[in-house]
Write a sequence for this structure.
């Protein structure tokens, strides 16, 4: 069984990414599981090349520093020839109607007079990511399930048209990680695209910056610490973060705190403690550079070895190999 998960460097990695997925990948790696930095996916909207390069390195360093097995990860663009070759085969297998029906394309293109073609074809690239590596299971939420279904459709169509080469993957629900909400607006999840930097705690934030952000976090005027996600969403968010970092429950955390000030200071303490070794290790990797490059190169080589025969067979069956 091969399970594939990716993370897109569209912004600096934050606490929600770490507690929601990355830490779980490090704690519960399955045999055959693969993790990749999907930096090609970050190009469907306007981007700055230097920033994308920097964010890709940061994300890879954070994965390594968090304890995700180095032998299970790679950077998507390090196999750009392989991914793009298969993406082209699959674009020639996919119909325009299938690509146009993708919900995310409809949502992100709605109201825009200028939409990049990559936004339309991105689900086909995602299918190439999945099929290139012989993936059997893809952990996705409801927002990405349609894309996995497209990968299944294209795998079956290619196999039936040209010959058996691709595994038909299954979409599986990911193991639930911690839910982290925006510190300024707990009605929405913490997101890289937020316009308020102080509402997001980044993995590489200085400890004092983390403390400042939590001191400014939204609570309410009730002046009571209780776990009530509906009635006190801001307080509930802080309790959930603290519970995730201490491996306990929000209700148990709430029983030991009496004031909002104490809650904010306590959650800042545990977050700083949780992130400290990850931050230190990631910054060391980024400063030295050589170890990160070696890990990245080894990951690319393993991924190339793993996928090469499958791609070559697909090219041959399609008449171009």
């Amino acid at each position: 069984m091969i399970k594939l998960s990716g993370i897109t460097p569209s912004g600096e990695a934050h606490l929600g990414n770490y507690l929601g997925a990355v830490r779980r990948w490090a704690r519960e790696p399955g045999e055959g599981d693969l993790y990749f930095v999907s930096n090609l996916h970050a190009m469907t909207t306007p981007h700055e090349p230097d920033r994308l390069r920097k964010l890709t390195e940061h994300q890879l360093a954070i994965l390594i520093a968090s304890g995700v097995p180095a032998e299970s990860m790679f950077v998507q663009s390090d196999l750009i020839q392989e991914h793009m070759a298969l993406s082209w085969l699959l674009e020639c297998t996919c119909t325009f109607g299938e690509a146009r029906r993708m919900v995310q394309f409809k949502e992100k293109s709605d109201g825009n007079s200028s939409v990049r073609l990559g936004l339309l074809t991105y689900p086909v690239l995602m299918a190439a990511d999945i099929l290139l590596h012989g993936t059997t299971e893809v952990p996705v939420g409801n927002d990405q399930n349609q894309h996995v279904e497209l990968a299944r459709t294209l795998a079956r169509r290619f196999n039936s048209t040209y010959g058996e080469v691709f595994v038909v993957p299954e979409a599986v629900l990911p193991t639930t990680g911690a839910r982290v909400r925006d510190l300024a607006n707990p009605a929405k999840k913490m997101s890289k695209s937020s316009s308020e930097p102080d509402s997001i705690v980044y993995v590489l934030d200085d400890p004092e910056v983390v403390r400042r952000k939590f001191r400014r976090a939204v609570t309410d005027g009730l002046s009571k610490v209780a776990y009530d996600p509906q009635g006190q969403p801001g307080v509930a968010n802080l309790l959930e973060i603290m519970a995730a970092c201490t491996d306990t429950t929000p209700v148990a955390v709430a029983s030991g705190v009496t004031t909002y000030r104490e809650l904010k200071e306590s959650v800042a303490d545990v977050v700083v403690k949780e992130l400290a070794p990850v931050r230190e290790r990631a910054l060391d990797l980024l400063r030295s550079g050589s170890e990160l490059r070696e890990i990245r190169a080894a990951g690319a080589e393993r991924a190339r070895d793993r996928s090469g025969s499958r791609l070559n067979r697909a090219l041959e069956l399609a008449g171009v190999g």
User: Anything to note?
Assistant: The chain is about 55% helix and 5% strand. The CA atoms of residues 82 and 311 lie 7 Å apart. The first strand starts at residue 4 and ends at 7. The chain has a mean pLDDT of 93.
